[in-house]
Amino acid sequence: MPELPEVETTKNGLAPHIVAKQITAVNIYQPQLRWPIAEEAKALVGIVSGEIERRAKYMLWHFSTGSLVMHLGMSGTMRVVSTQTALKKHDHFEVVFDDNSALRFNDPRRFGAILWQPQGETLSVLSQLGPEPLSDDFNGKYLHQMLAKRKGAIKNSIMDNKVVVGVGNIYASESLFMSGIHPKRAANKVSLARCNLLAGFIKSVLQKAIGEGGTTLKDFTQTDGSPGYFAQQLNVYGRADLPCNQCGTVIKKQVIGQRSSFYCPKCQR
């Protein structure tokens, strides 16, 4: 599943091609994704589009009447192409602009979403989200307070969107390794000092991934079609049975919270 850096990369790639353009058509080719595609999108014809921003793994494309709330799901991709470009299989949603370009959403597994958020309202999928990991609201003190009553594994806690948004499986594994924290350590047993470390490494690993263009995943490519490159620099994720880059100990793989987790048994306690 595309994670926060992949969504940020997609948003940044799309913005120059879709912002401040007049919409001439909205086409829904497959109405049923994770939820039905918002019919309200069809009312955008004739409107000039506003800015696009990211909230967690959602992209919010703003208009004078509200916002399209878009999620890539597990395999979704967005492309800006000429209207003369033939539709591909699994192109489910299209926004056509007055310069004869079009934004197309392709999603083979149909776990993505195109929702509508009216002006002045907040959709339920967004209302319960925790702070953005790269914001000042997310720091070691906040994290320590949020973990105080959580007895489960620390990895599950930092992947909980009510605690902090956008820390998916890859980046949770990487930031825990960099902090020297075992992914199964009880969340309420992580000290304030280690929470300060962890919050800092969550920020740095996400910032680095965004700078590199996201992680190379089978189903993800950037809006220009090129893959991300951050996967080449991962320390533990996907490296089971290989030596730790830091100490040489064999990297272990264990399922935690129904997700594959990777860690160094020597470096992480």
**Largest sheet descriptor:** 4 strands, antiparallel
Low-confidence spans: pLDDT under 50, at least 5 residues? none
In what order do the strands lie side by side in the largest sheet? Answer: 1-6-7-5
Derived from helix and strand composition plus strand pairing, the structural class reads alpha+beta
Oligomer type: single chain
Based on DSSP secondary structure assignment, what is the total number of beta strands? 10
The fraction of residues assigned to DSSP E strands is 15-25%
Helical fraction: 10-25%
Order of helices and strands: HEEEEEEEEHHHHHEE
Radius of gyration: 20 Å
Shape: elongated
- Whole-number average pLDDT? 93
Task: Write up this protein.
The protein has 6 helices and 10 strands. α1 packs across α6, α3 (140-147) packs across α6 (192-212) and α5 (169-179) crosses α6. By secondary structure, it is α+β, with helices and mostly antiparallel strands. It has a 4-stranded antiparallel beta sheet with strand order 1-6-7-5, with helices on one face. A 4-stranded antiparallel beta sheet has the order 2-3-4-8, with helices on one face. The longest helix has 21 residues, at 192-212. The protein starts with a helix and ends in a 6-residue tail after the last strand. β2 (52-55) and β3 form a beta hairpin.
